Amino acid sequence: EVVTLAVLMYPLLRGLALQLHSALTGSYIPGSSSMAFINCLNEQIAKDIARAIMDKKLAAQVNILPKSSALYFWKGELEESTEILLIVKTRTSKIGELSNYVRSIHPFEIPEIISMPIDQGNPLYLKWIEENVPRD
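Now predict its structure.
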């Protein structure tokens, strides 16, 4: 029983240990920040969504990448279009709120909103993300 409990508690205890270590040393907890990718139909929509995300303080930064070609299946048919890609840097804890908000304002029926946790990087930049996106 003790071994089972210890195994089940390991992720929680590891998380708490990482948070304590981070608080004491100022180091980055892997995965506490994320990058989200959002596709947009054109540059104006991309700028409007990026500004709305920033106005709601759901990100520290949004990059707007220029047009790229996209191939995808939609309603059983192969489609080709150009898209503008947003790369959003934020706290991982804000991804759900970010996704809900973007879906509420995005003109696409099913917008691409996917995220990846940031494992490592420039510690000063990662700290800057955390300082510029309010906690929950």
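The chain has two domains: 1-30, 31-132.
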